[in-house]
Amino acid sequence: MTPPVFAHGHLRLYLLALLEEQPRHGYELIQALSDRFGGTYSPSAGTIYPRLAKLEEEGLVTKSTDGRKTVYEITDAGRAELDARRHELDAIEDDLTDSVRRLADGVRAEVNDAMRSLRAELASAAREAKRAATRTPASDAGAGGTANPHVDSNRAVHEADLVLNEFRQQVRTDLRNQAHRGRVSSEAVNLLKARLAQVRADVLATFAER
Amino acid sequence: MTPPVFAHGHLRLYLLALLEEQPRHGYELIQALSDRFGGTYSPSAGTIYPRLAKLEEEGLVTKSTDGRKTVYEITDAGRAELDARRHELDAIEDDLTDSVRRLADGVRAEVNDAMRSLRAELASAAREAKRAATRTPASDAGAGGTANPHVDSNRAVHEADLVLNEFRQQVRTDLRNQAHRGRVSSEAVNLLKARLAQVRADVLATFAER
DNA sequence: CATCGAAACGCGATATATCGCGAGACAGGT
DNA sequence: ACCTGTCTCGCGATATATCGCGTTTCGATG
After folding, report:
1. Is the CB of B10 under 7 A from strand C?
2. A10-102 belongs to which CATH class?
């Protein structure tokens, strides 16, 4: 789903660069990376430790245990490797800021999907909990009820979710298409805002009528 | 912030009950608990392993290593403890379903806060990234330029995103509030759909006018 | 019986390490 | 140039364990 943040071998070099600044233990490197990405990207342990093991195997770093921490230190061979490829490092740094942006953009979209599934799960969990709660006391009556307004209501809400999402996506696309020609004014936004408020009010009114 | 899910000593007993069903390793217990909560609550390793260590210390379970796994098995003493407090277990089970519901309710509220701060961070990160991106190419020229249509356009689009999202959240909430009273008909959804299509058309029209 | 302090407890954060998948790089043949 | 199998690499998931903070429990002491 999410594309790799670091290209082939870039993480290796970047870790070396971080270790050149000062000796660090694994967890510290994870945090250091997370910091540079403003928390947007946190490399997992499964990414860092195998790389460190490899670097040690190649003799570019040495590890030493300090309490429950495993501190890694760069060796002369490591510094040599780093010097030889110093120019690549700048390019990596540039790619990184790019990756951050792409990640941030991706998150915006994914959060919505996550929200959807979260809400769906929550709703189903709530239903389940309610069933469980109502089962115990004294019920399970009316099992043959053909026209359950709740079922219809839930179906309608689900449909509405889809409608809302589609609308939102469409308008977002519309606006972006216009935006890169610099044609989206704040008046247009105000219009949108006002119209949406009106729609909401109208929809709410249909409920009040009953 | 979040209140404990398990009351004092309840986790201990619950783990024992899970181990009575079958021998399990630590991670498996975490997953088993996460399953019973429908993924809403996942006990952390820092919760499980100290408890297992304690149970072993008390002689209620034994551990045996199997590859990189540490399998825990209940002892006769453990079964005795469990028999002696079997009645408490039912009460715990009840509390649990309660906790799940409270957690789910809590999540609903917290997700909104989280979304808000996430959005704020994202927005600031995006601004930062944009600054960084515009600095490099060949610009900072129109530093005093008061009216850059692209900048304004992007700002407007961003604003529109917020408006769209707020609207979507509001209507979703509105519908759900009505839905659990079974008052959301498919006509209401159709109304919504039609009105939104109209709004989109109107917004697009303002661009065509230029 | 109240209260106060130590021990127990729940839990997120810290810390380390391995496994297996999928995507990409790369050397070799054709 | 163009496949093709292998090898590397990034990474989430799996797995274990400890630390320190805040709260709750519970027995001792007054």
Report:
1. yes
2. mainly alpha
The counts of H helices and E strands in chain B are 7, 3
Distance CA B164, CA B158 (A): 10
Calculate what percentage of chain A has a pLDDT beyond 90.
29
* Domain boundaries along the sequence of chain A: 10-102, 155-210
Closest in B161, B163, B183 to A153, CB measured: B183
Contact between chains at A153 and B126 (C-beta distance less than 8 A): no
Going by pLDDT thresholds of 50, 70 and 90, the confidence category of residue B65 is very high
Please state the rounded mean pLDDT for residues A63-71. Answer: 93
Q: Do A121 and B160 touch (CB under 8 A)?
A: no
* Eight-class DSSP state of B8: T
B90 touches chain A (CB under 8 A): no
Instruction: Quickly name the fold that domain B10-103 has.
Output: Arc Repressor Mutant, subunit A (1.10.10)
Q: How far is B6 from chain A (nearest CA, A)?
A: 18
Instruction: Please return the burial class of A46, using the count of CB atoms within 10 Å of its CB with bins 0-12, 13-18 and 19+.
Output: exposed
